[in-house]
Write a structure and sequence with these properties.
The chain is globular and about 35 Å long. By secondary structure, it is an all-alpha fold.
Length: 94
């Protein structure tokens, strides 16, 4: 099993800050299928926290009205989402 299968918990509840909450509310009306908002919400959570925690996944799922497994699936499928705190210097090879 991949090492990406385990999410890290911060132990603190996650909520969008005021700026990202307003952006979420602005964007959610543009998506007729609410689950289409998962990727932008993950991006906002990563911008805010620097990475995506278990609490962020649960928060996004609750806000969108879907299962955390669906949010987790996208967060771990795409390499642009970080599911653990990032080191200061990162080297990626394509």
């Amino acid at each position: 099993m991949s090492d990406r299968s385990e999410l890290i918990s911060t132990g603190e509840p996650f909520v969008f800050d005021d700026e990202r909450d307003a952006e979420f509310e602005r964007l959610i009306v543009r998506y007729p299928i609410r689950e289409s908002m998962i990727m932008p919400a993950l991006w906002m959570a990563q911008e805010q926290q620097g990475w995506i925690s278990t609490e962020a996944i649960e928060y996004i799922a609750d806000r969108i009205g879907t299962y955390p497994a669906k949010v987790y699936e996208l967060a771990t499928f795409y390499t642009m989402y970080r599911t653990e705190p990032q080191a200061e210097n990162v080297l990626q090879v394509c």
